[in-house]
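Box 3.1 — From sequence to structure: SWIM-type domain-containing protein
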Amino acid sequence: MTRSVQAFAYARPSALGSSGAGRSLGLETSGGVTPVGAEAHPRFFSGFLTSPLAAARGLLAVADVAAARYYQRRPGSLDPVVTGNGDRLRFESFSGCNGVYARLDVLREGLDGADTGHGTTNVDVNNPLREALSRLTGDDPLHLRVGPDELAVTTLGGSVVEKKVPLPDRWLRGFAEAQVACSGFDLRAELPAAEAVRFLRSLPRGAGARAPMWVVPAGRTLRPTTRPVPGAVCLAGPDRLAALQRVLRHATALRVYGPAAARSAAAAGGARGAASAWEVLLPGMRLTLTLSPDPSRGFSGEGRVLEALATRDAEADAELVSVLLAWEPRIDPGDLAVRAGLPVERVRAALTRLGTAGRVGYDVAEAAYFHRELPYDADRAERHNPRLVAARELAASGAVELSGDLATVASGERRYQVREADGAPTCTCRWWTDHRGGRGPCKHALAVRMARRGAKVTGGTR
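Predicted structure (token representation):
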């Protein structure tokens, strides 16, 4: 696995302290991007939280996921990402195994007393801060500051708190894959607070919590089912919802999102599970955990972004669309299509490509994309995607022979048959036999798509 080192530099550690009006939570920021460009320590918010204890628990839940590894358990080490979208703050993290994506949206009604800035950065959530937040009780006023205060600004030239952590490329790809998965979800169930707490606390624990299970709406609750019947949602590894326990006492409802059961079962292609999203509604906030189809599968390996990355126009379209983004909390592909003069399908492909650099996310609650900026390179994500690299090499080397709906791809000492049916490719290779499209196209199908579309295929390197 290719890894780089991500360096976080903070002016001082984040801390929970006291102020004249109650408690004060100062979250320190690392290098980030704002509408005026890169900043060493951007400032996004300074004001009070309307539900301080729920917000503290929600932030801890996001930090829990960032520090967790649910498969081959080893601790993670990445600080959460925060984005200011003008009317809200979004805190995001991925688990170390890349299989759980967490996001806390603190909405306008959850923020009191100040405007929210625009931009994206990492925030320091250190162990002493986590311990202090865990001990927080009552609903005394809590002042939140995201970014340096005036005192810190005057001392930024001094010593800083540095964290250097290994950053696997698959973690970067996970942002894009989670976005693509979520964009295909619909609301499947909504449970009131009491039923939500009962259901989540009834989930299996220990070894029995690692196997995928399916649940189906039944009145005001969810009941288990042995197969993906219509309306069912896959809960792949129930123990991966453990971070939600932090906020249950503040929950007002639980919403469950997933693809149509028939579609998710077909897409699984013999795999045991499907992705899903679990959203706890809090006063003025939403905490969402998105789970990969299986605890042993991180989002980075799902391959749903590969079709968009393999198109001829994706790179140029992404550059055009990126200029039109303005830190919107809701991005409308139809509106972008009109402004960019592109078909909606090409705008969606461009958004997918931008997602590989962490520049676009997807909010299932609002069924809309949102703008963020992470300091990652989309080209780098492409270069280190094995299937995409291999497909480019096959197409560039002339290994693809086209004959109507049928194509032959010479790979090594073998020749594989790729056939198009209703826009979906099938292949005679082992990858397609094992996954049947459930984890994106194989390298042979990708190479055929590139050849058919005349995509740029040079420049692929191992």
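Summary of the box: The chain has a mean pLDDT of 83.
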